[in-house]
């Protein structure tokens, strides 16, 4: 999630745990702790792919943060001014302010390495977009009440309750979408295909569905207001024939570890060289994918590893008015929003007749 939301979450948790005893200090300390895991953005791991896949790494590990929180609790219990605060309350304060950050991150699409240093893929159960005002505003309101009144607990506790209720609503909305999707996938023989269901920007009412089908991927949008309307899929090429070449390189393997099969491969002419580029299909939107990376260059007919660099991946025909169209699509499936209109023709394989 964004920095403001993480600071607000840490502040609200801090107030809810020790606001009665520490007052406004619990809010301030909680906000600092809530942003601490994201300091890894200032670390350079060597190249663009490493920076991309190491973000939300060890600084988001539940093991590391629990250990850090325990150390801080022991320090506060030993050196903080005399207060009627038991060690277990210090421990709950520091650990919860820290670990709620990666737990919230894990509810977004990017992926969070909760179990570092275990070599498992990042955890991602996307039910909220990385910026969602309806989640953040209750936290900010609760913090504001605490800062104005000096009662560090009541406002943050209410803010946490409302924001948590919103997450429960988001989970329910996703389950509803999944239930509508299952029979359609079964009918098309795609029930076992890798799938990603995630909210579209700034809301939990309209959901983007991505299905990986070999060298292609299918996309559709489903709103909680669609009723029994059957979803229709648009099909895109993802350059699957280039996947073995990409996976032959260390950075290609790393990207696959991070994003799974939700990658598109293409050959671009960059500075006069044929360059193999991988794009993360999970993040962004068709035509607006945010992250693409160079993996290799072709020299004398052979592929050689390249120093990974990040490339602009927006298609030339992309139009930011799509955000407004997404908003309209939430409440009505007509007229249909066809994502293929934002994507270069070379990627489009099949679209429904309505497009």
TrEMBL record:
Annotated TM spans: 57-74, 86-104, 124-150, 157-177
Keywords: Membrane, Transmembrane, Transmembrane helix
Matches recorded under Pfam families: YdjM (PF04307)
Protein name as annotated: Inner membrane protein
Source organism (scientific name): Halomonas chromatireducens
């Amino acid at each position: 999630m964004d920095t403001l939301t993480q600071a607000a979450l840490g502040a609200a948790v801090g107030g809810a745990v020790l606001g009665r005893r520490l007052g406004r200090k619990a809010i301030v300390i909680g906000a600092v702790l809530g942003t601490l895991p994201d300091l890894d953005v200032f670390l350079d791991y060597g190249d663009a792919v490493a920076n991309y896949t190491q973000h939300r790494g060890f600084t988001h590990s539940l093991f590391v943060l629990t250990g850090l929180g325990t150390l801080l609790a022991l320090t506060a219990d030993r050196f903080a001014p005399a207060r009627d605060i038991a060690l277990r309350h210090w421990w709950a304060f520091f650990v919860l302010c820290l670990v709620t950050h990666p737990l919230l991150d894990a509810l977004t699409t990017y992926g969070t390495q909760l179990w570092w240093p275990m070599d498992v893929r990042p955890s991602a159960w996307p039910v909220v977009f990385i910026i969602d005002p309806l989640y953040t505003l209750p936290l900010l309101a609760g913090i504001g009440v605490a800062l104005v009144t000096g009662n560090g607990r009541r406002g943050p506790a209410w803010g946490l309750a409302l924001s948590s209720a919103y997450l429960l609503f988001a989970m329910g909305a996703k389950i509803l979408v999944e239930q509508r999707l299952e029979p359609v996938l079964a009918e098309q023989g795609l029930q076992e295909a890798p799938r990603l269901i995630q909210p579209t920007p700034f809301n939990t009412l309209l959901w983007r569905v991505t299905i990986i089908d070999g060298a292609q991927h299918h996309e559709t949008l489903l709103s909680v207001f669609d009723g029994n309307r059957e979803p229709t899929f648009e099909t895109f090429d993802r350059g699957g024939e280039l996947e073995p070449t990409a996976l032959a390189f260390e950075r290609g393997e790393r990207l696959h570890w991070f994003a799974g099969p939700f990658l598109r491969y293409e050959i671009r002419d960059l500075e006069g060289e044929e360059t193999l580029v991988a794009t993360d299909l999970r993040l962004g939107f068709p035509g607006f994918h945010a992250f693409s990376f160079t993996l290799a260059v072709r020299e004398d007919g052979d592929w050689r590893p390249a120093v990974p660099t990040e490339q602009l991946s927006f298609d030339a025909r992309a139009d930011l008015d799509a955000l407004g169209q997404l908003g309209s699509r939430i409440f009505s499936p007509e007229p249909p929003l066809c994502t293929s209109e934002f994507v270069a023709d070379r990627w489009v394989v099949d679209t429904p007749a309505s497009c």
